[in-house]
Design a protein that fits this description.
This protein is an all-alpha fold. It folds into two domains: 63 residues, no CATH class; 59 residues, no CATH class. It is built from seven helices and no strands. α2 packs across α3 and α5 packs parallel to α7. The longest helix is centred in the C-terminal third of the chain and has 18 residues. InterPro entries: Phage_Mu_Gp16.
Length: 137
């Protein structure tokens, strides 16, 4: 592990400072108090983690964390959601809407939105729609 942080780390610190609304003077005082360093250039990966933990306690949320939060491991994948929409369009001959799909799902106990499905339920919806499309032909 390198002894210094990378330019990417400096950018993260800048974004964190802006996001929590910290002035330069307050940031310098925090840096000195938490890490014993006067500048970010002197930070090590360990002291960087300590500084970021403090920023997170102040309300900083990294864009990486935001991306990961929206993609929960149990949620249906983008491919599953796309497949459901495609099957619904085929079943309804292109006249079905997102609202009609939600109504259909809700009536059958799958939930009220494709975006809220978990992976297992999405597989069941895909199976049901596949059978309906096959019967309709």
């Amino acid at each position: 592990m390198p002894d210094t942080i990378t330019p990417k780390h400096f950018a993260i610190i800048r974004v964190a400072k802006e996001q929590v609304g910290m002035s330069e003077d307050d940031y310098r005082a925090l840096l000195s108090r938490l890490t014993g360093q006067e500048t970010a250039k002197a930070l090590t990966p360990q002291t960087f983690k300590k500084l970021m933990a403090h920023f997170e306690a102040l309300g900083f949320i990294s864009t990486e964390a935001k991306k990961n939060a929206s993609r929960h491991p149990l949620k249906a994948t983008e491919a599953q959601m796309r497949k459901i929409s495609e099957l619904w369009a085929i079943f309804t001959d292109g006249t079905g809407t997102e609202t009609s799909l939600r109504h259909w799902m809700e009536k059958r106990g799958y939930g009220c939105s494709v975006g809220w499905l978990d992976g297992g339920t999405a597989r069941r919806v895909i199976g049901a729609l596949t059978k309906m499309v096959a019967r309709g032909r």
